[in-house]
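Q: Could you write out the predicted structure for this multi-component system? I'm mainly interested in how the pieces pack against one another.
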Amino acid sequence: MPKRIQAIKGTQDVLPPYGDTLRTLENTLLSIAHNYGYSEIRTPVFEPTELFSRGMGGTTDVVQKEMYTFEDKGGRSITLRPEGTAGVVRALLEHGLFNEPMPQKLSYITSCYRYEKPQAGRYREFHQFGVECFGASGPAVDAELIALAAGIFRTLGLTALRLELNSIGCPSCRPAYHAALKKYFAARQDELCPACLERLERNPLRILDCKSPVCAAIAEDAPIGLDYLCGACAEHFDGLKSTLDALEMAYSVNPRIVRGLDYYTKTVFEFVTDTIGAQGTVCGGGRYDGLVTELGGNALPALGFGLGLERLELVLRASGKKTPLPPPCTLYIVPIGEDALCKAAALCEKLRTKGIHAQFDVVGRSVKAQMKYAGKIGALYTAVLGTDDLSAGTVAVKRMADGETQAIALADFVEAFYAKILGCFNHF
Ligand code: HAM
């Protein structure tokens, strides 16, 4: 027998019924975002490498170590998207969405690829639900965006996540902060890892999220960005905090949050939990007022967040929450004989065209085995259809919960099923 092929390390298959659960969860997220005015956007899974190296910053871990980059057959450097934001900004510029009335609010569910060391909650292929909002600069929209993420967790009944906030300033106040960081780290440069030595020259802020334990320990006493904010950034941060207070949202200011990507300005935030191990950041985002310009557009304020679906699922599981499943099979028809099989196929088809989930036996099981199968898939009703039923023109439909039956005419089965069964029983 040929050798079986295994999935690549850090990737996961989604098996039934979790595939259905995931779809329901994704629809819930998109529809909550829709209530805040977000519309779905889809962008390609691969983009020119330059989009990410320019967008996310050449000194970030993602760009330096984690991108899936390859040359295509035309000699172009291509990268599998490591995150959703850069592609959305490219699409906004490419299709002139900046000419539409502002704000432009875009949501997405997307697969992402990062060559990281896999562990619980960290994968090489993972999925993000994200939102990006363009054209609004005041702190009210930062608060609205954060409230959207919090609303998602609330809707899902999750209480184990806490909101942490910071402001990392803008191009006018960042140089002073960078200088302070540079001075601090330069004094201990002998202890820094080689990557951080390079960061010291190019972008000392990135040393703050180095994963090496030595660099992380040194970073603990590094200067704090909040002490270097310019007037406008401090005012923005105060405005955000008072709007969150008005929304009665709990938060803590964590000056150590810098986020792992270079495009952030002013507000950054994370929703974190201690319930799923080391990879406890479930949602992260912030403002990125300079990215549209960096990618070739006119200045346009922007902000967004990415929420990892795998981590969300881990939190749901750790909290004992059942993610909702779509409704189970409404009617399972158990045909006996060839004529009944044809009739069952036709009835199921009619029911499905009316939006009713119906199934019948397609593998030739015995009646007993079919009933067992109907129980296993959680069918709400069953109907055993034999030759006698075909001649009589009616079939008994049984409610599985309590065994109660109703005779339904075969001639106008769908209408009668609707009227006598779906209309009169509280079946879900
Ligand atoms: P990020 O913090 O790199 O931000 O990722 C956002 C979320 O994606 C994380 O909080 C986490 O839940 C999930 N995530 C990241 N890496 C992995 C991984 N290797 N395995 C599993 N889950 C992972 C961004 O990607 C930004 N684009 C977010 C954003 C949007 N900022 C503004 N707009």
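A: Regarding packing and overall arrangement: The chain has two domains: 18-173+229-318, 331-423.
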